[in-house]
Specification:
Length: about 55
């Protein structure tokens, strides 16, 4: 029975650490964005549009 208590405690600690790391990651991202500006978005690649003059006639 004690093993399960240790396992549950270990799982809770791991969950807590994962949540803390996610919060730190989010905080670091917001800090970097505040210091350096928002992430550069890649320019959209224009999609070629077929110009079929025969259809319009």
């Amino acid at each position: 029975m004690r093993r399960w208590a240790y396992m549950e405690g270990a799982i809770q600690v791991i969950d807590y650490i994962e949540r803390a790391l996610e919060r730190l990651k989010d905080w670091a991202g917001r800090l970097i964005e505040a210091l350096l500006g928002p992430d550069a978005q890649p320019e959209p690649v224009p999609v070629p549009v077929r110009n079929d003059e025969r259809r319009r006639s």
